[in-house]
Each structure stands twice: as C-alpha cells, then as structure tokens.
Design goal:
alpha/beta; TIM Barrel; 2 domains; 4-stranded parallel β-sheet; two-stranded antiparallel ribbon
Length: 144
Amino acid sequence: MASFRFANVRLVPAVTRAPARPSKSTDLDDAIRRLKAYKAAGADCLYAPGIATREQIEAVVKAVAPTPVNFLNGGALGFTVDDIAAMGVRRISVGGSLARVAMDAFVRTATAIAKEGRFDGFAGLISNAELNRFFREDRKKLSS
C-alpha cells in the first residue's frame, strides 16, 4: 500500500491593533511559505483552511503547483464544483457543513414545535424508503 502525506496549513489570523479599533487580516504569504515547505518535504496534497476568495485559492494553487490542493468549502461562498476545479483545486472538502445543515433543520423545526406548536418543518421530508434506497444504491456503487 502506498503512503500518502497530507499537509494542513491554516491561515492564522494576525491581529493588528490601532488606537481606536482592532482589525484582523490573514497572512496568505506566510501560509504559502509554509505550504511550500511541506511540499518540499514531500507532501502529496496540501490544505490551507481559511482561504475563501478566488484570488486566495488561485494564489495557493499556483504557488504549490503541481502538488494537489484541497479546498475546504464550508459555506455558501458562491462557487460551484466546476468553479473550484477551474481554479485548479483537486480535492474539495466540506468539513462539518453537511452536519450543520442537518442540525440547522433540526433546530428550526424543534423551535417551531416548541414555540408555535407547528410541524411545518416536516413538509417535504424524504421518506424512510427513499433514504434506504439512496444508501442502498450508494453501497452498490462502492462495491462495484
């Protein structure tokens, strides 16, 4: 079995203080410097959670090419899978976002039941049969 080395470099917020109000910025140059160091050490894929703009994503991809980059798309950033792939990203993660989508639906529906006595959040639910079919078909795809 081949080994796989994966490097994770977070954009660390640098807090700068002005006399009246603090501002936060991320040091993309520092993150790229660290990603390049992991690349030089033999990482097979690089990951910089915290990048979110087209400019940041493209800068990271270009800086470490041809090493694959993983992009964490943890919110509605306005990109499609095709957009992200066109930027050169080779792997897309969603982190805990799918779980948060489910918990958001749970909280909204439970709150409506508790506060308003309404079950409107159950409208349009996927049936148990549909869920079972979805997972059964997915298992078949994985085993073929």
